[in-house]
Amino acid sequence: MPLASGTVLAGRYRLLARLGEGGMGSVYKVEDVTHPGRFLALKELLDDATLPPEERAAAVKRFDDEIALLRRLHHPRIPSFEGHFLERDQHYFLMELIAGVTLEDLQTQRHSPLPEYDVLSWMCDVCDVLSYLHAQHPPVIVRDLKPGNIMVTPDGDVFLIDFGIARTYKAGKQGNTENLGTAIYASPEHHGHGQTDARSDIYSLGATMYHLLTNVEPAPMETPLPGSLRRHASGVSEATERLIIRAMELDPARRFPDTEAMRQAMRQAMLTLPPAAQASRTRITPSGSTASAPALPRASAPSYSSSAPVSSPARASSVAAQPAAAPAPVSRPAASAGVRVGGLICPRCGFVNRSNAKFCARDGAPLRPGIAPRSRAGKPAAAPVTKIVPASTAELHAQRATESFGAGRFQQAIRQAEEAINQGRGTYDLYLLLGRARRSLNRHLEAARAFEQAARLQPTAEALTLEGMSWRDAGDLTAAQIALTKARVLDPHNADIPSQLGLICLQQGMFSQAEGELSAALEIQRNWAPALIGLGQLHEARKEWPEAIASFRQATAAAPDDASAHLELGRALLATHKPAEAVRELEQAARLAPQSVEALTALGVALSATGKRNKARDALRKALSIDPTSREARDMLDHM
C-alpha cells in the first residue's frame, strides 16, 4: 500500500508526493525536515511477505546492489546518492531529486514521433553517460536502457535513471545469471544468447531511438530493414536510419564498437539535417508539458566519452521519473562547456559552435565553407572585410606573454595573451597560460573560461582540473563538478581530482558523497594532505572535533609546509578552547603564507585569547594592511 502524504520516515523525511511506482515499491518526493526546503527522491522496496523466500531475497539483493553501485558513481547526468535506511523492515534509499520528464512520458504526451534533432542531441548526452559507465573497472552495463529511464529537464539536461538491474561485466563469463530488461529494447544477449556487455547497451540505445523517432515499438530481437524506419517516419534522415540499423544488429560484432563511435555517427547525422530541423525545438516545462519553441543556443554537459577526442567522470519509473511538481532544489544549470544545441556544427569534428561563429572553437575549421552570407532579401551580401595579421605579430605577442608570466608580471601576460588570441594565435598552451595568469590574480571566472577553451582545443586532465578548481573558486559548483569528473576519467590515478570533488560535495552539504570522494583520494595516495584537510573539514561540519583535529594533525605531518593545513588545525584548536596550541599552528601558517589575511586574522584571535593583546593587534593590523576591507579583522581590532 502506498505511503500516505505527510508520513515522516527515519524521523526526518516527510513524504510530499508519489512520483512513480512499480511492482516492488514506489518513489516519493520528500522534504528533509531538519533542513527545510531541501527536497529529495526516496525509493522504497516493499517486503512482500507473499513472495517465495528466494524471490524476496533476490529483490533485496538487487536493491542493495543498486545502492552499492550508486555510491560509487559520480557523474553530472546521474542523480547523486544521498543515503539509505531501514525502517519497520522496509528498505529505503535517497537520491537527488530531478525535476523533468522521462522520454516515455514525453512521447505519450506528444502522441507522435519526436523531432530528429532533439533525439540525436539527447542520445549524444546518453552516450556520454554510457561511456562513463562502460569505462568503470569493471564496466557497468545498464541492461535496461529505454525511454522510461531517460529524463530531460526544463533546461534541456539529460539524466540516466534507474540502475536497478545494472551489473558489472565479468570477463570470460558466457552468460548472465539473470536475463532481465524490457523485451522490445533488449539485445539477444539479454535473452540468454551470451553475456551482456557494452554493446548490449548500444543495441538498447538504437531500439530506444527507433521508438522515439517513429512512435512505433521496435520488434523484439529484430534488426530493422533499410527503409523500414523511414516508412513510419518519412522525415528521418537516411544517416540516422543507418546508424540505428547498425546499433540494432543481432550480432554484437557488427554493432558500433563503443558508445563514442555511435555518438560520432549521431553528430555526423546531425550535419545532414536542414536548418529547419533546428528552427523549432521541443521545450519542456517544469510540469512536464511540452511546447514548440525557437531554437536557442544551449550549452549541455560536456562529453565524457572514454575514447577521445573528448573524455570523462531508478526506479520502477524511478527517481523523478514522473514530472516533478516543482524544480529540484539543487540547481543543475546548463554547463558551460560541450555540445551547444542550436549552433553551427563543425563539418570536421562535429562540435556545435555559436550560431554566429566563423571558425570551430575545437579545431579551428572554417564553418560553412564556400557559402557566402546572404542579405534578408536573399541576395548575396557583401563579403566582410577580413583583417590579415602577419603570423609573426601574433607569435611575438605569444612570446611576450610567456616571458611576462615567467617573470611574474601576470597583468602584462594577460594583455599579451589576449592580443595574440585576437590575432588568431589561440592555441591550447596560450589559453592555459592565460588561465594561469588570471588565476594568479584571483580572476577565477575569467580563468575558468580560459581553461575551458584550452580543454576544448585539447582535452587534458591538467586543463580540466584547473578549469574545475577555477569554477569552484568562482562559485559555480556544478560547472566545477562537471570539469573535474571529466578530468578523473582522463587521469583516474590523480588524487587531487577526487579531493576537489570531495570539497565541492562538502560545500553542497552532501556529506556522505564528500566522504566517499575524499576516501577515494586517500586510496590513490596515502596521506594526501588536501584530502586529509577535506576530511577534517567534514568532521568539523559534523561537530566531530577530535576526529577533525586528528585529520588536520595528520595533514600537517604529511605536508609540514602546507599553510592551509596549519590554518585549519589552528582554527579547530581554537574552536575546542585550546588557544595556546592554536597560536603555535597559526604562527606557522602565517610564516608559510605571510600574505594570508585568514591566517593573520585567526592568529590575532588566538593571541587575544591567550592574553597577548599587543601581538594580537599587530597581527590584525597586518591583515588590514593587506586587505583593508576585511570585516572580521576590523571588528576584532575595534573590540580589543
Structure write-up:
The chain contains 23 helices and 17 strands. By secondary structure, it is α+β, with helices and mostly antiparallel strands.
Helix and strand layout, with pairings?
Layout (H helix, E strand, L loop, with lengths): L7 E2 L3 E10 L2 E8 L6 E7 L7 H20 L8 E7 L2 E7 L4 E2 H8 L5 H19 L5 E2 L8 E3 L5 E3 L6 E2 L29 H17 L13 H5 L5 H10 L11 H13 L4 H4 E5 L5 E5 L3 E2 L40 E2 L2 E2 L6 E2 L37 H16 L3 H13 L5 H13 L3 H14 L3 H14 L2 H14 L5 H12 L3 H14 L4 H13 L3 H14 L4 H13 L3 H14 L4 H13 L3 H14 L4 H8 L2
Antiparallel strand pairs: 1-2, 2-3, 3-4, 4-6, 5-6, 7-9, 8-11, 9-10, 12-13, 14-15, 16-17
Helix pairs in contact: 3-4, 3-7, 4-6, 6-7, 9-10, 9-11, 10-11, 11-12, 11-13, 12-13, 13-14, 14-15, 15-16, 15-17, 16-17, 17-18, 17-19, 18-19, 19-20, 19-21, 20-21, 21-22, 22-23
Quick structural gist:
This protein is of the alpha+beta class. Helices cover 46% and strands 11% of the residues. Helix 11 (428-440) runs antiparallel to helix 12 (444-457) and helix 16 runs antiparallel to helix 17.
